[in-house]
Amino acid sequence: MGRGIKAYLLLCSLVIISGLRLLVIANAVLESITSLSEPDDALHILNRTCFPPHFRWGAASSAYQEDVQNLKQLNLDAYRFSISWSRLLPRGKIRGGVNEEGITYYNNLINELLANDIEPYVTLFHWDVPQALEDEYGGFLSTNIVYDFRDYAELCFKRFGDRVKYWITMNEPWSFSGGGYVTGAMAPGRCSAWLKLNCPAGDSGTEPYIVTHNQLLAHAVAVNKYRDKYQKSQKGEIGITLVSKWLEPLTNSSLDIEARERSFDFKLGWFMDPLTIGDYPAVMRSLVGNRLPKFSPKQADMVKGSIDFLGINYYTAQYAANAPYDSSLNLSYDTDSLVTLSNEKDGVPIGAQAGSNWLYMDDLTRPIPIKEALNDTVRIKYYHDHLSNILEAMKAGVKVEGYFAWSLVDNFEWAFGYSSRFGMYYTDYQDGLKIYPKPSTPWFTSFLNKGPMLV
Question: What's the predicted TM-score (pTM) here?
Answer without folding.
Answer: 0.77
